[in-house]
């Protein structure tokens, strides 16, 4: 069948429609997944273990056959135009897999050739230098630390100059310093025009890096949105009042507010939605004064992406 | 055709061979030399000529075939099993390479190693016994066809195997016995009639016979029959590999 490039939005890097995957064991890993990933964005796919993140990535990369549905990369169908789509994609797997006795240089060069690119020592050198692997180019993989091996996997994925990069749990098991270096690298790649799709357990990572976030649970996409919009829409804020005199219960005069007593009655916690125009804080403070309840200190806390994620996954169960 | 990928896989596999020269090349050559010493020089000296050549010279084609068969299967099965075992197979499966290109890379490298070993064994044999090759081109053709065919079979075993025990099972329990019973050390007319009939179902007999014919112009079966069996075996192995990649069996769940 001749290759046919579908009309998809100009800024669409990956378009997924009605994707289903049921394994031979009968386990349904993905169900009716629809997803659009824009060119040049950093997209985070969040989900608990077994949610279907790796299956989704594996299908787009051609490692796993879908049961039904359609996936397009830069408009090309992953099954019909598999050579084109695979050449566009780089994948950094979750597991630290490597040929123990191969050198860093050889294994990265191998990846470039495998993806159909002519040898280009200058490009390999650039990638290795960017990932601070240049000094290790002649080292065997077995001699590298876990963090270094992770860098090599990234170098292998970048060896053929992909336009779309999948990072499956890229910073699992790496130290804080390396994690921050990798975040910087991902931002640098985005500036070069690479679309980055990452799965992560570290919500902080998605909060730090992603432009948009999707939450997947039990093989279904629960929500997809701009990270800031998601946090504004679903985020909540808590006002904590440290009371001068502890309360045994919440007085009747304050019953119209969403309050909770904590710390043996020493703190009063007020929760409100950040998206609401009227948060009710002024009224609460007024009612507290009227009820002769005084506080010695107060603080506020914005819910994190992690809180939102936990709520979404819990609600989906 | 993604020739860069074929080259990358081929060179990667060959690099492994040259990194482990002792295991990959020296060990099989020493083992084969021991056969020449024991069967060719020690025992062979007490055996009269077979098919018009000395016993030492008679066993050379069979021993080379034995080496090529076992090494082809073992090299190719190991070549594809290791990426599965350590997990690096994800890269091959996600790369823009067709099954044909993957096979060309892995099987090509395994077959190239086996042919190289076969020629080294031939050179080694010439140190022990005087050798003449009546049809050098036919000899090379049989050597290459056998190496490719059995590398394909090794490739299939490597995909099928999910542990090291299975990886060694077929070479040890099937390939080696077939090679030993395929006329490496004897001609089948030395066997009782019933065993002669059974031997005719052993495909390795045809390979060794054809290969021996290219040396001494004599064999257990006609050279045409040998070629037909090798070609059929090759077609069967190719069809099986094609089916594996088409269905994703053991590779893509």
Description:
The complex is a heterodimer of chains A (317) and B (253). With 317 residues, chain A is an alpha/beta fold. Chain A has two domains: 12-231, P-loop containing nucleotide triphosphate hydrolases (Rossmann fold), CATH 3.40.50.300; 235-304, Alpha-Beta Plaits. In chain A, 32% of the residues lie in helices and 28% in strands. Chain A contains ten helices and 14 strands. Chain A has helices spanning 53-61, 82-88, 104-114, 121-130, 146-158, 176-191, 203-209, 227-234, 281-290, 305-316, and strands spanning 12-22, 28-38, 42-46, 68-73, 76-77, 89-92, 164-168, 195-200, 212-217, 220-226, 236-243, 259-262, 267-273, 295-302. Chain A has a six-stranded mixed β-sheet, with helices on both faces. Chain A has a four-stranded antiparallel β-sheet with strand order 2-1-4-5, with helices on one face. Chain A is elongated. By secondary structure, chain B is mainly α. Chain B has ten helices and no strands. Chain B has helices at 3-19, 21-43, 55-86, 89-94, 99-128, 136-160, 164-180, 193-199, 203-216, 223-247. In chain B, α2 (21-43) packs across α5, α5 (99-128) packs across α6 (136-160) and α6 packs parallel to α10. The mean pLDDT of chain B is 85. Classes of the chains: A alpha/beta (317), B mainly alpha (253). The interface between A and B is medium-sized, with 34 and 26 residues.
Q: Tell me the quaternary state.
A: heterodimer
Describe the main β-sheet of chain B briefly.
Answer: none
Low-confidence segments of chain A: none
- Beta percentage of chain A is 25-35%
- CATH architecture assignment of the largest domain in chain A: 3-Layer(aba) Sandwich
Q: What is the distance, rounded to the nearest whole angstrom, between the alpha carbons of the first and last residues of chain A?
A: 42 Å
- Number of structural domains of chain B: 1
Secondary-structure class of chain A = alpha/beta
Considering residues with a beta carbon less than 8 A from a beta carbon on another chain, report the largest interface and each chain's count: A-B, 34 and 26 residues
| SSE sequence of chain A, one letter per element | EEEHEEHEHHHEHEHEEHEEEHEH
- Element-by-element helix/strand order of chain B: HHHHHHHHHH
Quantity of strands of chain A, as a count? 14
Low-confidence stretches of chain B: none
* Radius of gyration of chain A using CA atoms only: 24 Å
Mean pLDDT level of chain A: 85
Helix tally of chain B equals 10
User: With helices defined by DSSP (H or I, 4 residues minimum), what is the helix count of chain A?
Assistant: 10
**Kindly, what is the distance between the CA atoms of the first and last residues of chain B, rounded to a whole number of angstroms?**
25 Å
Would you report the number of β strands of chain B? 0
